[in-house]
Amino acid sequence: MMERNGDHYRAKTMQLFAAVAHLYALDFREVLAICESVWPTVAHPARTIERRFCLAFAGLAETALGSHASALERFSRAREEMDRYGVIFSWHVRMMVEQGVTDCLLASGDLDRARPQAERFLELTLATADRMFQALAWEANARLAIAESDRVRANECAAKAVATIEGFEVPHAAWRVHATAAESAERAGDGRAAQRFRELSRATILQLANSMPPEDPLRSTFLSAPAVRVVLDR
């Protein structure tokens, strides 16, 4: 409709909403394709929030695909802009950026830098009422503790993540939280708790998958993603 009405700018930026759907469905290559398509439209200085969302989405996709240097560069650009001046929804972009930087450093094995970054991510989310990002921040800190072989800290952070989502519908965080809680419990030698958390993660994954039609390619992409297969194949 926007294209027919000649509103090409809004038509392009609406694609960023599609990028969110692909991001949560773990279709990272399509996220990058959308962001690259939208970028020429939002790169103009007047398109502040759209540009920041585009940088964050593309950075998160590159993080998952292992392009850590490129992702960190995008996050740095978004951070620099937000540090200069804020606009509506900047707080939301900032949480995505801090999540991405944390995941980048963890994935690259840079634990010395990941530690203060994970704490920064957590502190930022706790200043909001956003349960999804709070849970993801606790989950990231649990993964950091697992990487550092700190079982006590891992269990504490995993428990905080689980408590954060109790009573709230945040499935995009819940399946990750329960998967990490399962790994933490398993490493602590609590097989029963690990199995319980893994079943909760699996149930949420299937709930998300079943929210899409069986013939939807995005459903298959989500269910075949490595992070999802780790849960489903156990």
Summarize the structure in words:
It is a single chain. Helices cover about 80% and strands about 0% of the residues. The chain has helices spanning about 10-25, 30-40, 50-65, 70-85, 90-105, 110-125, 130-145, 150-165, 170-185, 190-210, 215-225, 225-230. The protein folds into two domains: about 1-110, Tetratricopeptide repeat domain (Serine Threonine Protein Phosphatase 5, Tetratricopeptide repeat), CATH 1.25.40.10; about 110-234, Serine Threonine Protein Phosphatase 5, Tetratricopeptide repeat, CATH 1.25.40. The longest helix is centred in the C-terminal third of the chain and has 19 residues, at about 190-210. The chain is mainly alpha-helical and about 230 residues long. Helix 1 (about 10-25) runs antiparallel to helix 2 (about 30-40).
Helix and strand pattern: HHHHHHHHHHHH
For the termini, the CA-CA separation is: 46 Å
Sheet with the most strands, sense and barrel status: none
CATH fold topology of the largest domain: Serine Threonine Protein Phosphatase 5, Tetratricopeptide repeat
Structural domains: how many: 2
Q: Helix amount, in percent?
A: over 70%
Compute the number of strand runs.
Answer: 0
* Assigned CATH architecture of the largest domain: Alpha Horseshoe
* Count of alpha and pi helical runs: 12
Q: State the CATH class of the largest domain.
A: Mainly Alpha
Task: Give me the Rg, rounded.
Answer: 18 Å
Shape category: globular
Class per helix and strand makeup: mainly alpha
What ranges have pLDDT less than 50 throughout 5 or more consecutive residues?
none
Mean of residue pLDDT values: 95
Range of strand content: under 5%
